[in-house]
Amino acid sequence: MRRANVKTKIFDISNYTEEVIRKADVDFDPEAVDMIEDATDKLKQAANVIAKGGLVVFPTETVYGLGANAFDPAAVGKIYKAKGRPADNPTIVHIARPSDIYLTGRDLTASTLKLASVFWPGPLTMVVHKRPEVPSITTAGLETVGVRLPDHPAAIELISMSGVPIAAPSANLSGGPSPTKGRHAIADMDGRVEIILVGADSRIGIESTVVDMTASSPVVLRPGFLSAADLAEELGKDVKTHSSLVDENEASNADTDEPPKSPGMKYRHYAPEAEMYIIEGKRPDVENEIARLRSLNEKEGRKVGVILFDEKDYVDAAHDFYAKLRELDDAGSDLILAGALDRGDGLGFAVMNRMMRSAGHHVIRV
């Protein structure tokens, strides 16, 4: 994809953290005060870009986001152009405080408000009926909108300073791995946006859980750090999981004419440039098969990369998966072999959702 001719400013805001903010506001530490003042100036410049209809890349606790004024159709259109994003793939609207959900959503249920009170700020997106003020392009023509409040001080401050909710999918070229490091966001978005705000690596590493709150029972449309069981426990009632997440045949069918209610439901997502296969089975069998396939392919002159997380280390798997895909692509891998995780664990299920889509549902069972 040809790079747009935009002069991008890259700002380091890695010092804008809860710890440094506390030192500046509570301890009046001079060094911390200087750090916060510098970062705040950069955030103000970025907020001004958002307010004027431009694009800003910013860090969140999940992945880096590509943001624009959610109420400005022309600005949101720039997101789709910068990413090469299909027009029927909705964005998620990010807000700065829980009550801002009323700016974008209507007919909110008691369950919606309950989950907001428990999990916001945090990696939870709730799909609700949209208000007329939310333009069609922001929701890809749907009468619903996904809303979340990120758990990241710089993201919250940027949204607050902008004075508008920010529509923000992940800051990657459409179809590729989401960026969890500043340099990955720069690699995809330098020359396509006005400002890239570079913070620390994303704390979680996979996108937010998306739950549809407009159905008679809540339905998880995209798994994430928070599981259906986590949500059900707080609500005291069942939270379903969309059939496309549990039926591989349905999940791999991207030819449906039905518009997706959530990002990540319809199109090939998170995919590396290399060919990729998932090896699934008992761990010793998986390790043996990966070794066999690696040896076989390397003898044929192919460069093989391997992703094999510890069996129960789901947090690290979520945090590192996208970064490993990018690192293996950067190393020139022709083939990536990934060991499957236990889908019975909530976070393991979420990481496997990304693995399956990254690999185009190519699975070898041993």
List the main descriptive attributes of the protein structure presented here.
single chain; 366 residues; alpha/beta; DHBP synthase; Rossmann fold; 2 domains; twelve-stranded mixed sheet; four-stranded parallel sheet; globular
Report on this model:
With 366 residues, the protein is of the alpha/beta class. The protein has two domains: 243 residues, DHBP synthase, CATH 3.90.870; 91 residues, Rossmann fold (3-Layer(aba) Sandwich), CATH 3.40.50. Helix content is 37%, strand content 17%. The chain contains 13 helices and 16 strands. The strands form two sheets. Strands 1, 2, 3, 4, 5, 6, 7, 8, 9, 10, 11 and 12 form a twelve-stranded mixed beta sheet that branches. Helix 1 crosses helix 2 and helix 2 crosses helix 6. The longest helix has 22 residues. The chain is globular, with a radius of gyration of 20 Å. The relative contact order is 0.14.
